[in-house]
Design brief:
Arc Repressor Mutant, subunit A; alpha+beta; globular; 4 strands; 106 residues
């Protein structure tokens, strides 16, 4: 499926409005974006992966992960001794849809 950059931008803006992402502070948004990027690569990050990305301090990272979980945007799953951060199903479906697009310039 091919689409234009404008279509992808529209989809992203819909996601923003639909799920209240504009209500996230800058650090929460950076962490959420990191999780989304890794989900698009089919490699959900562990909490330690997010800490090691040095988006913010360790304590702030855990505080923001807790807030993202409380808001229903992510959940964690204990896999192979690590807390892996995953997107809630509504976000996962959106990421899969956008990941499948082949963007063309117009």
């Amino acid at each position: 499926m091919q689409t234009t950059f404008a279509r992808v931008l529209h989809l992203l803006m819909t996601l923003e409005r639909s799920f209240g992402l504009s209500g996230l502070d800058a650090e929460q948004r950076a962490i959420f974006d990191f999780i989304v990027a890794r989900a698009a690569e089919d490699k959900p990050p562990s909490a330690n992966d997010i800490v090691n990305a040095k988006i913010t301090s360790r304590s702030s990272t855990y505080r923001h992960l807790s807030a993202l979980k409380d808001s229903g945007m992510i959940f964690d799953e204990f896999i192979d001794g690590a807390h892996v951060m995953k997107l809630m199903p509504q976000f996962s479906a959106f990421v899969e849809k956008v990941s499948d697009l082949q963007v063309t310039e117009t």
